[in-house]
Amino acid sequence: MSRRLGLGTLALAVAFPLLAGCGGSTSSDGAGSPPSGNAGAFQPTKADFRDLRDLLARRASAVLHHRQQAFLATVDSRQPTLLRQQRTIFQNMTQLPLAALAYPMDSSSLLVPAPVGDGDPVLRPSLVEQLQLRGTTPAPVSNALNQTFVRRNGHWYLGAETAPSQGSSGQTSDERPWYGVPIVASSDGPLTVLVDRSREASLAGLVSEVSDDIDVDASLLGVPAQHAILVDATSNGTSTSFSSLSKEQAGAVTFGLSHTDPAGDRYVGSAGLAIKINPHDVSRLAESKPLLRHELTHFLLHEYLGSSPKWLSEGIANWVEYYPDDYPALRLTGDLYSRTMHSDRALPTVGVFNYDPDIHYQVAQAAVAWLITRNGMPRLLQLMGAYRNQFRDVNVDALTPRLLHQVYGVTEKELVAGAFGLIASFQH
């Protein structure tokens, strides 16, 4: 559900991903087997894992109580670059409205450690960061960590931390905007907004705009205003790849945050929602009500997202984005109008939507506008509710003919004809 920076071009990306299960050997006494890599023949003991858990508890406590010296004392002092990295992470995290922080470790799952050097023992256990933002996330956000620990003179320290592998927007389980470059944060009640420190001047305006637009969207949709969302406009995190089939950069993407079990291999429940904003367009988005209102529509209607067909979820977001205009600028460019009117006379299904988004967003918005003109917003939400209640599998488009007849008393062919008629009426 991303909003591209071109006319009416959007892309939906909703995910409630699970952390990938980490493979590794196990042993019956819980001590684990020796990891590969530069650990050599090192055999970790229960005492080693007990010391690592103590180290992780001290790191979490230092962040929660804003004790930078105690936090950096857990880092290998022989590595100045690592120390600088960890100082930035600490300073980023202590700006957050933290309600809880923990680092559960699975000692039975050992991964290949990073090369720390010096020949000292190293370990890379399966590790999860569980971080909860007060009011913003209803449960801790679970992120798999890539951390290697080194034992120096009988004591364990963090020896390396690398970023999670990059993924496409909303299709990764690791969204950690506090890992990377320096950031600044601001909260307005349950709303938390993060931007790069280099773009701090845009923060106040972005917070205000998001909060105001949530209220406007809620009023248009006739739903309660909800402000519990994480807005990440930083250069950090793994949802920074705004790729699209039309080769345009997306302005924003909305996705789910996951809460898992301590091992990170079983989804427990939702940890809330986040909007990732393209950091290069923060200023523009902060000043552009339509772009934010599109994403916030997805946020406010999140209970319907997984069960609504894409033409419906994107069409209603487009309708809110351009309100009170009945259509984008009331006219399409000559080429886009021609291509749209010569396209297949059908509602774009989820399988084809992104193959020609320029056209399909026009059709989706026009279809929703036709339904709203016919029976108003409450009936449209009733249709979304019907999809949710009767959703059984990913082929949600198969429900469309029956539900259109059930809720509106019209056929899919009549809806398509109405949508294309609306496009033609505004064009001429």
Q: How would you sum up this structure, described in words?
A:
The protein has 428 residues and is α+β, with helices and mostly antiparallel strands. It has a domain at 301-428. Helix content is 37%, strand content 20%. It has 12 helices and 13 strands. The protein has a 7-stranded mixed β-sheet. Strands 3, 4, 5, 6, 7 and 8 form a 6-stranded antiparallel β-sheet that branches. The two termini are 30 Å apart. The relative contact order is 0.13.
Mean pLDDT: 84
Strand order of the largest sheet: 2-1-12-13-11-10-9
Question: Which consecutive residue ranges, at least 5 long each, have pLDDT under 50?
Answer: 1-39, 167-173, 243-249
Strand content: 15-25%
Largest sheet: 7 strands, mixed
- Molecular shape: elongated
**Based on helices, strands and strand pairing, what is the structural class?**
alpha+beta
> From N to C, what is the helix and strand string?
EEHHHEEEEEEEEHEEEHHHHHHHH
The number of helical elements comes to 12
